[in-house]
Amino acid sequence: MLDFTSALYLGLCHPSRSLPPWSQFTTGFPAALASPPGAVQLAHQLARLQTCEYGVLGTSTFHLFWDLFGMIARRPVTIYVDSGVYPIARWGVERAAAHGISIREFAHHDPEALRNCLKRDGRSRVRPVLVTDGFCPDCGKPAPLSDYLETLRTSGGRLIVDDTQALGIFGNSPGPNTPYGRGGGGMLPLLQTGGPDVLVISSLAKAFGAPVAVLTGSRPAIQEFEKNSETRMHCSPPALPVIRAAEHALRVNRKHGDRLRLRLANLVTRFRHRAESAGFRFTGGLFPVQTLAPASKAETRRLHERLLHQGVRTVLRRALHGHGLRVSFVITARHTPQTIDSAINALAEIT
């Protein structure tokens, strides 16, 4: 079976023999009382990687978004949501809406649509908060973060970015030998933007292969989050083995990350070239999630089933924005050129 369903983009798996030992899974303390060993140092390493000042770990992005929007809902704000934002961030927004906060949705990656929304709301003293993904796998493009920030700053607003897809993939100074950029810090270093009015929530469960999340931003903003977080008091903190896996991921990233990213980029490029030669059109750009152009639901489902019958496992999913189903191939650094060629050959044979 050729498997194109794993989101471990860099192929990091963290077998137990590669990690320092641990004497227990959890301390039994809530994070609000005592952070697990290594958690504070890991969060600050991730903050530096993302060109932010400070960071704090969370068990998942859901925990972090739930807390953050619960805090935001205590203030007079209006939340503006990029229509392509990932569902987990939306769940946080829905918590704020349940507290009576006004929500405005605007067209995907459209700064002019955001400006029009702000203009319609007039010169309110209510602070705007914008929520977006840093990178959209569906269209294969980064969010226009600099344009969003320029618009928000005229109203004293704040930008919240879900950078889960970009963390570990994109970084600063892209070039011929580093097509994704260097370092793997995500969208802020790639786009050379940021500031004290930016908060970033990211999971390490994709490129870095560790099921833990981090909130990064300015020191005052993160310290306020730590002080008021509900999940740090009432939910279990990240388990010690998970923290060890994340530490291992950052060590591998420092030593081999750019080489792994180059290998991944070469595989994605090969996939796209072979697919184009065979007459197929995929969206996603250079990102490792490659999605076939839309077709009817019945055709898409039939294609997915026939690929599976041919020994090619793909992702059948709903479109992140819009309607319908999509078939996606998720490419990782563990794939080989031969695997890529076999997948395209199977696709061509079926169609």
Question: Would you write up a description of this structure?
Answer:
This protein has eleven helices and 15 strands. The longest helix has 38 residues. It has two domains: 101 residues, Aspartate Aminotransferase, domain 1 (Alpha-Beta Complex); 231 residues, Aspartate Aminotransferase, domain 2 (3-Layer(aba) Sandwich), CATH 3.40.640. It has a seven-stranded mixed β-sheet, sandwiched between helices. Strands 11-12-15-14 form a four-stranded antiparallel β-sheet. The protein has a two-stranded parallel sheet with strand order 1-13. The radius of gyration is 21 Å and the shape is globular. It has 351 residues and is of the alpha/beta class. Strand 8, helix 6 and strand 9 form a beta-alpha-beta unit.
Features of the shown structure:
seven-stranded mixed β-sheet, Aspartate Aminotransferase, domain 2, four-stranded antiparallel β-sheet, alpha/beta, Aspartate Aminotransferase, domain 1, single chain, 2 domains, 11 helices, 351 residues
* SSE pattern, N- to C-terminal: EHEHEHEHEEEHEHEEHHHEEHEEEH
Mean pLDDT: 95
Helix share, percent? 25-40%
Estimate the strand proportion.
15-25%
Q: Would you tell me which CATH topology of the largest domain applies?
A: Aspartate Aminotransferase, domain 2
Shape summary: globular
Q: What radius of gyration results from the CA coordinates?
A: 21 Å
Annotate the secondary structure layout.
Layout: E1 2-3, H1 39-49, E2 54-58, H2 61-72, E3 77-82, H3 87-98, E4 102-106, H4 111-121, E5 127-133, E6 135-136, E7 141-142, H5 145-153, E8 158-162, H6 187-191, E9 198-203, E10 213-217, H7 219-228, H8 231-234, H9 240-277, E11 282-283, E12 289-292, H10 297-309, E13 312-313, E14 315-318, E15 325-330, H11 337-350
Parallel strand pairs: 1-13, 3-4, 3-5, 5-8, 8-9
Antiparallel strand pairs: 2-10, 6-7, 9-10, 11-12, 12-15, 14-15
